[in-house]
């Protein structure tokens, strides 16, 4: 049987592209091939390879029909899908999100912490909890050698001494067991100093710098706790100093776009003009009633804006002044393994979050909700039923995903976002789906244009 449901043909920037979602193959084709593939997809009479015979005859002179048949026989077009998921993976925790600070010196409108409760009291993680979390990771990582810790919050620089001591402890304990840590810190930048810059540059594999773009965009939704001064003017010089001193090491400037800045390609351009070359711009996740939340009526504008961003990306690449946009990085030749293509981030069994109290959650978005507690850093994972439920949630269990060409690129989306939008992790967030598909189209278009 030819699986035509997961073949996606589209045009962008003068290029014709065809994606075979099941195999992950992407083809750049001419107008005649695009028309032929679309005709095959639309024909109810074409169900298997033998049914392609009439198309072979019609295109005998050009050889196009033979090319389409060869791609199908090679499993690169109209390829078959998995019929069942592989066995449930073993629980091997490889990454921790350490919520070292349930406190912040900013009050951002869209942040989960903006109301000030963090689903609990404002508090900082003690070194004893952080130390126990490292021990938990060393034990539960089992055979895995490469481990990751992300210092998160709130604002982790508000608990800098614990961050610093935790890095030193993890490195020392990991070395004893032949394990290597990669550290990331996410910061709003208010607390950065040259001394902290030096430590981050020496020890952190990656640093995520939170700023939304143009001054008027950023300061509209991001304010200090005391509501004094411009956050933009405070942190931009600090971020520039850190990035300039960082050399070739990884970093990302991470922005958030809301209903207030649907022209977010301009924010990406602005951040690049400031000297930042590693940029991410994420759609806000918000209460639908909030005036800054993204709504279905915003979708056409958002999709157009991604196309504008793709053109900006190519324009600056062509001028020899390129930047890297996180969501346009799609690896077609050496992509993730099957488990990652099915399930994505691995929340709940490969990646977990630790609250200041020492409780363990599937990810930082569940922190503070008692029904999602997996265990503690002292007792380990106890609620294995919750962990297994995340393993069993993947694109093959989500009916809307089964016939979607993008499923093995997006892995069914974020389970937490799905639950917030639809009440079920099996029903994807429709708005997020459409944005992800457009980002994928832009990524494929960019690769075709650059090739």
Overview features:
18% strand, 38% helix, alpha/beta, three-stranded antiparallel beta sheet, 451 residues, 18 strands, eleven-stranded mixed beta sheet, single chain
Task: Briefly characterize the structure.
The chain is α/β, with parallel strands linked by helices and 451 residues long. Helix content is 38%, strand content 18%. The protein is globular.
Q: Layout of SSEs?
A:
Layout: E1 7-12, E2 15-20, E3 25-29, H1 31-42, H2 53-58, H3 64-73, E4 95-99, E5 101-102, E6 106-108, E7 123-124, H4 127-140, E8 146-152, H5 160-177, E9 180-187, H6 194-203, E10 204-210, H7 215-221, E11 222-224, H8 231-246, E12 252-257, H9 265-273, E13 278-283, H10 299-318, E14 324-325, H11 338-343, E15 351-354, E16 359-361, E17 375-376, E18 380-381, H12 384-391, H13 399-402, H14 407-410, H15 415-422, H16 430-450
Parallel strand pairs: 4-8, 4-15, 8-9, 9-10, 10-12, 12-13, 13-14
Antiparallel strand pairs: 1-2, 2-3, 5-7, 6-11, 15-16, 16-17, 17-18
Helix pairs in contact: 4-5, 6-8, 9-10, 10-16
